[in-house]
Specification:
Largest sheet: none
Shape: elongated
């Protein structure tokens, strides 16, 4: 355990959360197109559904795992680092998705809930890391 802050590691974890989103959605869409359907009428609804499901389920899971990774060497400041991981991921997601929100192709409620779940997952990872790094009572 280190008492040094690892802000760069936390920022990197936030970026990795969003890169994982892009990779997983791209892989899902490629597999769907190769195995099920290439018709736009079927492909687009599936794509939107896949993005929403990933945002609600995959996003928080990946955020939790990468936040745990970012917090692993720390002995303090877990919540601050976790909020930086989540804040970075949220900022990138909002920046990348701002066009689809403005065009009306994405629901603001979907984004808000997905981002709230990421923050909750990061805070949960921080609480677990904090509990695991505190000395056991004698």
């Amino acid at each position: 355990m280190t008492t040094r802050n690892r802000w760069g590691r936390a920022l990197g974890a936030g970026v990795l959360v969003e890169l994982a989103f892009i990779v997983l959605i791209s892989a899902t869409m490629a597999i769907y197109a190769a195995t099920v359907s290439r018709k736009a009428a079927e492909f687009m609804p599936f794509g939107h559904a896949a993005i929403v499901w990933y945002a609600y389920i995959g996003g928080p899971i990946v955020t939790f795992v990468l936040t745990r990774w970012a917090l692993r060497p720390l002995s303090s400041a877990h919540v601050a680092h976790a909020l930086l991981v989540a804040g970075t991921a949220v900022a990138i997601h909002v920046f990348v998705g701002a066009g689809s929100i403005a065009e009306g192709t994405a629901s603001l409620l979907v984004y808000a809930l997905a981002e709230a779940l990421k923050v909750a997952a990061a805070v949960a990872a921080a609480m677990l890391a904090q509990r695991n790094s505190s000395p056991a009572p004698v």
